[in-house]
Design brief:
The chain has 474 residues and is α+β, with helices and mostly antiparallel strands. The chain contains 9 helices and 28 strands. It is globular, with a radius of gyration of 27 Å.
Length: 474
């Protein structure tokens, strides 16, 4: 299946280069443009723009851009300067970019901005409009084009046996107003399953089927080894389920807003940078459900490669490492419904960081096919380890690889692990508070010296713990 060729901003182009194995690209006509253009849509230079990045954004050459703007040079380019963008015959107005949101399609964006669908296709060189992905940068145009913009609305899908006239009567609305907002020439042209837009309300026009009101993912970009938050708002309390790539999302209800649910999910450190399917389903008490399916880009993280390590061969034997890892991940699989933490996590120890999360590792001359699953804090066996956030101890014990180990459950599928301790001062079932001493650094298990190895596991996936000390989730 071919996917769209877009004219990207620089950052998106870099992503597409990393996704080349999964994307089939068409060549835009403007890529070969070599003539000057006296008139056309304009672009206002933004902070950080260069002639090269602007040309890349719109699929043209720097020579063509300069030919359409005599006297403009890279040295003289200034923020706020207006440039004519060649290659868009018949279009006028100011060009901008828009980041595609979850639940947004080419058609909903066209209605939201008051543009023709064909205008967006022309602006972006789209081959297949159905394959737009979340956070994709779309070129838009500030112009009077197709019809009045519908900036806010609620989208309803007509059920079998329901026409636009009966829908309008049920909701006490004007069918012609609904038809106009939905880009239909007549109410009679609406077919079962078609989207009907009811203008107004607080939510931007999207293609989210009611009772889904909003879907938000953060932070962006989504990066290997980091945590992504999926927030879903519905018109009434519903059961929300979902899958991101191969990970089942565990949704929990906001304690203050019962129509809002969150899922926190770690992105596997070695997951290839690519586009991955995100599917969300909201089901009401009667069993009726609506589904959103879109693709989400995962970007490569910036991680180091550690020097080769020499350790006890028994601690890298798969007969030992695999059962121990399976035990830990079975332990952290449940997502308990009570969120025990608020705010950012505290650091669990003081002292130098000896190794960061995500670095590739080789043991005893083997291949670099493993990564460091946490952060190492140096020190000595007199260096205390403290709880970074409220939680409940779910495991303590001595393991071959992890040595003296403690695992704390913080709720909502978030766990922390503490390996290689010399002493453990807590036991399963204990409730811990931030700053409470739970043990001491040590040199037990697979180590090259005394330290604490600290892990944060979210949705059964190890993530960079330091992001949790800098950012509040959700």
């Amino acid at each position: 299946m071919k996917t769209p060729r877009r004219w990207w901003r620089l950052g998106t182009i870099i992503l597409l280069l990393s996704l080349a194995s999964s994307l089939s690209l068409a060549v835009p006509a403007t890529a070969t443009l070599a003539h000057a253009q006296a008139a056309g849509p304009e672009y206002v230079v933004q902070p950080g723009d260069t002639l090269y990045s602007i040309a890349l954004s719109f699929g043209i050459t720097v020579d063509a851009l300069q030919a359409a703007n005599p006297g403009v040079s890279a040295a003289a380019l200034g923020v706020g300067q207006t440039l004519t963008i060649p290659g868009f015959d018949g279009l006028s107005g100011t060009l901008t970019t828009h980041s595609m949101q979850a639940g947004e399609t080419l058609d909903s964006l066209a209605v939201r901005l008051g543009l023709k669908r064909s205008t967006l296709v022309q602006l972006n060189g789209i081959v297949n409009p159905e394959l737009l992905f979340i956070n994709e940068s779309a070129v838009t145009l500030d112009t009077i084009d197709a019809a009045p913009a519908v900036p806010t609305s609620t989208t309803y899908a007509l059920t079998p046996g329901t026409g636009l006239l009966s829908f309008a009567a049920e909701h006490n609305l004007n069918p012609w107003t609904l038809a106009a907002a939905s880009r239909l020439d007549s109410p009679a042209l609406a077919v079962p399953g078609a989207d009907v837009l009811v203008p107004g309300g607080d939510h931007p026009t999207q293609a989210l089927p009611y009772p889904l009101l909003d879907v938000e993912l953060r932070p962006f970009p989504v990066i290997q080894g980091h945590t992504v938050v999926v927030q879903v708002d519905t018109a009434s309390p519903m059961t929300v389920t979902g899958v991101l790539s191969d990970s089942v999302l565990n949704f929990e209800t906001d304690p203050i807003t019962p129509t809002r649910q969150y899922a926190l999910q770690g992105i596997y450190r070695l997951l290839d940078p690519d586009l991955y399917p995100l599917t969300l389903t909201a089901t009401d008490a009667k069993g009726d459900s609506v589904t959103l399916a879109q693709r989400l880009p995962v970007h490569a993280g910036q991680y180091a490669t550690d020097d080769p390590l020499t350790v006890d061969p028994a601690t890298i034997d798969p007969a030992v490492t695999v059962p121990e890892q399976d035990m830990i991940f079975k332990l952290v699989a449940p997502a308990t419904p009570e969120r025990l933490w608020t705010g950012v996590f505290l650091l669990p120890s003081v002292g130098p960081t000896r190794s960061l999360f995500g670095s590739l590792r080789s043991y005893n001359g083997g291949p670099y096919n493993q990564f460091h699953g946490g952060v190492d804090f140096g020190g000595g066996e007199d260096r205390p380890i403290t709880a970074p956030a409220p939680g409940v101890v779910v495991y303590t014990g001595k393991l071959i690889v992890r040595g003296n180990a403690t695992v704390i459950n913080h709720g909502w599928g978030v766990y922390t692990g503490y390996w290689h301790q010399s002493q453990i001062l807590v036991k399963p079932g204990d409730q811990v508070s931030p700053g409470q001493i739970i043990g001491y650094q040590g040199a037990t298990g697979r180590v090259t010296g005394p330290h604490l190895h600290w892990e944060v596991i979210v949705g059964d996936v190890q993530v960079d713990p330091l992001t949790w000390t800098k950012q509040t989730f959700p």
